[in-house]
Amino acid sequence: MKADIAGISRLRIGVDGEGVTTLVAFMLCPLQCKYCLNPQTLSMSYPSKSYTPEELYAELKIDALYFLATGGGVTFGGGEPLLRAPFIAEFRSICGKEWKLNLETSLNVSRDLLETAAPCVDSFIVDIKDMNPETYASYTGGSNSGVLENLRYLVDAGRAESCVIKVPLIPGYNSKEAVEASMSALKSMGFNNFDKLKYKTEIHGKGKGNL
Ligand code: SF4
Hints:
By secondary structure, the chain is an alpha/beta fold. Helices cover 32% and strands 23% of the residues. The chain has a single domain (3-203), classed as Aldolase class I (TIM Barrel). The chain contains 7 helices and 8 strands, in the order E-E-E-H-H-E-H-E-H-E-H-H-E-H-E. Helix 4 links the parallel strand 5 (100-105) and strand 6.
């Protein structure tokens, strides 16, 4: 099993999970967000590198001491990491239980992929965009109906407290009131941990992002 990885960013603190983390950004995503943070992951023409789970573990274990000392670990992002759910499950079986594994995801994937990855990860950072279906479609080019079903799955599986939900202010697409409406809808579903942020519009298309 191999996965194309756009980049690996080491020794991150307080950015995408507890303790010291290493971000692994997978290629490809089902969405086309206008202000995508890592637009290079959306095109297979980007010079990515292909790894097996064993090869990735061999590259990341240089930071094992940092992970264990700080309660940190690996954050899988992208792109959409849940497209590589079997890879993540295999990686967990190789790295063992001591590393924290985090997923930075839109949840816009089929349920079977979420069910494969969820038992293998410790926390979820879910970028919800906006709960309003029209706003979501205009910003991402996709539907959020599957996202809502996957959010319900996480609540029913008792994983709501392991989720931080990003509720962004998206310039030109939503408003502060819309952000509050999204948070209210998410609270009524059972989510309590939120990250309110404002998207940076200038990043789009520059090929930099968070790698
Ligand atoms: S979900 Fe994330 S990776 Fe995918 S297009 Fe949107 S911002 Fe980019």
